[in-house]
Give the backbone structure.
Amino acid sequence: MLLPLSVRSLPFLLPKPAATVSIVSWSAILVASFWLPLGSVVVLIGLPVCAVLGLSLALWRRLSQSATTLSTLETPFRLAGDFEMFVRYEQLAASLLTISTQPDVIYRAVALEHLDDLVRRASLVAQGTFVFEGTETWRLVYERLLRSPGLHRYRSVAWMRSPHYWQDEPGRKSLAVNLELVASQRLTIERIAILDDALWTATETWPVEPVRQWLHEQFARGIDVGFVRASQLTHEADLLADSGLYGSRALGVQQLDDGGQTERFTLRFDLQAVIEAESRWNRLAVYAESWANYLDRYDLPG
């Protein structure tokens, strides 16, 4: 009896061991079909099928691991087209090689701890997140963002819990940049100030000095200013934040100490984070009082 074409050509389509196993299995099933009940034949077929599926899954996992390893080996080749990144890759690789040659166990333990911290920070950068400590360190990046080509609108939420907010040297320099860019019509700036109730009490028409003057100067020089008492946001706690929206490009969030000084500034190049911040801005704007409208109703103290 001639075998079907698929069986006759099997040795040419599969590796020799696989072809042999397949022919023997099929032959066994054909013989069994003449001598065993149908249920037993189904079991006989099902067991090898399950085994093949299990082996296929194991092979797929192994190939996936191999692909990952290959990708790691290809890293320098992929980075070769980005000269600036490749130079840093070479420097890091050279440092790791030097560290790995040091025999002192304490040195190695401390080195690994520092490298773990470096890996964590690199992971954050890869996700588009940068964390700056202190005021002056973030101010330079802040200014670069505001002056960057393509940025036309900056929205700022100033959570003011101290009358000295932005009154230090970096703060004054940052405000000067704001005013310069607005005056030159290179940037539209909208700022909403969230004022602690101690800075704008329910019995007072205007906020205390120097807060009132700080806000009025910005309004007078072209910044769109709004303000709201923090107590009005009791049921909207997620709106209580000190943040800046750099167009649709990035979101910046400040953490301040009790004196109004910046302790940490987190910058996120993350479109989803920007979208969520825009939504919070729109909700906050519902509560905020426009400085221009407020001036139409109340005279500014002399």
In short: Residues 146 and 246 are 7 Å apart (CA to CA). The beta strands are 129-133, 153-160, 188-195, 224-229, 242-246, 250-256, 262-268, 289-290. The longest strand covers residues 153-160. The first helix runs from residue 5 to 8.
